[in-house]
Specification:
The chain has six helices and eight strands. The protein has two domains: 98 residues, no CATH class; 141 residues, TATA-Binding Protein (2-Layer Sandwich), CATH 3.30.310.80. The N and C termini lie far apart (72 Å). It has 249 residues and is an alpha+beta fold. The strands form two sheets. Strands 3, 4, 5, 6, 7 and 8 form a six-stranded antiparallel β-sheet that branches. Strands 1-2 form a two-stranded parallel ribbon. Keywords: Membrane, Transmembrane, Transmembrane helix.
Amino acid sequence: MEKKRLSKWALFSLVLAVTGACLLLVSGYGYQWNWWGLGTAFTWVIPASAIIALIALSLALVYSFARSAEPNETGSTVAILGLVLSMGVLGTVGYWFYQAQQYPPIHDITTDIADPPRFQAVVPLRADAPNDTTYGDEDKAEIQRDAYPDIQTLYLDIPYEEAFERAERALEEMPWEEVVTADKKTGIIEAYDQLPWFGFVDDVVIRVDTSESNRGSKIDVRSVSRIGKGDIGVNAHRIRNYLRAVKKQ
């Protein structure tokens, strides 16, 4: 009985699918390792990974149609692997492209638009960052109001000292990179968070203060990206998670 040979369509599908997946993965880490700039990663590397994955998907489909005409060829498992992997790449690229369209092009989010907490300790760490720590104009403030109406000051019916302690304890639940300063006298906590894949760094400042409205205390948070016009909702999500952790204390 003649031994069946591996279909070239199935083999090429898997090879290209693996290539596309590796290219997608390295698009971010290559930026972190200074292999290329951010523009190159988004304009060339990621689209290239999607194109290669699309070709791999097409080859897997070609194999599925051609296998009946080639009884001496095998490769169903290989083709399925190529199909699944290529769909994973296309799904990932499509997901992030979709996400980018859902959020406004702002990268500085705060619970107090009128008087945002100010950075001090982290300023030297972001000296080379394209984005500065200036909050922005009223237009950007209005964009935040429309996009994130739930990002508001947290009022607590507890004394200032207890509120600051709760703010510090909540930090322990945050997967942030480093707490730069926590000054109970001024009520200011500053930290930064480094995201995986592309390694983007965002800075966070937390301000604990007394509240005249309820004779208790209040906590404001501000999260700012060092690079990028938009943030795909990351800063708002970070603030929500932190305030949720404070409430649980």
